[in-house]
Amino acid sequence: MLMVERVPTGIPGLDELIEGGFPRGRSILVSGGCGTGKTILAMQYLIKGALEHNEPGLYITVDERAELIREDMLRFGWDIKALEDEGKLAILDLSATKIGVPSMEQYYVESHEFEPEKLLIKIMQMARSIGAKRFVLDSIPALGFHMEKESKIREFILKLVYYLKQTGLTSILISEIPEYGKELERYSRFGVEEYVVDGVIVLRYTTMPLLEGAHRILFIRKMRATKHYEGMVPLQITSEGIKLLPVELNI
Ligand SMILES: Nc1ncnc2c1ncn2[C@@H]1O[C@H](COP(=O)(O)OP(=O)(O)O)[C@@H](O)[C@H]1O
Ligand SMILES: [Mg+2]
Predict the structure, then answer these.
(1) Could you state, in order of their start, the residue ranges of all structural domains in the chain?
(2) Ligand 1 atom at minimal distance to the Cα of residue 40
(3) Which residues surround ligand 2, an ion (CB under 5 A)?
């Protein structure tokens, strides 16, 4: 049997729930409400990949300023700047252009590049130039708001996932979903993301925890080519980043 190669996620407790890691070369949607830890999880994936597996990563930030992400991640002891200097991590800043101010970053896009085809070319060129093996887009909805038509963002998502797969990048695409109401069973904003990706991981914050104090939950909704854990997994954000609490494994 041909085995799917696995990419360790860098999140303690997660790999053992998904046969050792993300399937190599695939795209995973990480979906959740605000403050559920999507940005931390995605950065942790890139930082651990760079530090522990020598896999360079490319991070696209659409909403948050790169400078603030660097600052926030220092809280977990993660020196993004040092990894950038070593060429193991690169941040492509879309946040300045998105609000129409000049970017202070080394890597950014011009306003005329804020359009599916050009953005895709820029992203893939950057990925190639740093020899990226891991990729994060933070986030799809943030990007969508900038493209006038929903058909544009759909086209962008479809093509992006296609190119990522072609290039063999193992990717996290971040989505944001409402936490309550009838939208609860939706994992994506544009209704296409969850179908084109190979995996969906949902992060939730609950005021009614299953276990005492376990307000944060991770849930693997889909992981192609993988026999994965199917239950809710308690998640903690500590001074060392995100970790999952042990669950009874019978997968
Ligand atoms: N140093 C820390 N220790 C514990 N929890 C933290 C720390 N820093 C941030 N958090 C938690 O993480 C949340 C932000 O996570 P983030 O990944 O930015 O969320 P998202 O991207 O899903 O909106 C904060 O609201 C807070 O609850
Ligand atoms: Mg975020």
Answers:
(1) 13-244
(2) 17
(3) 38-39
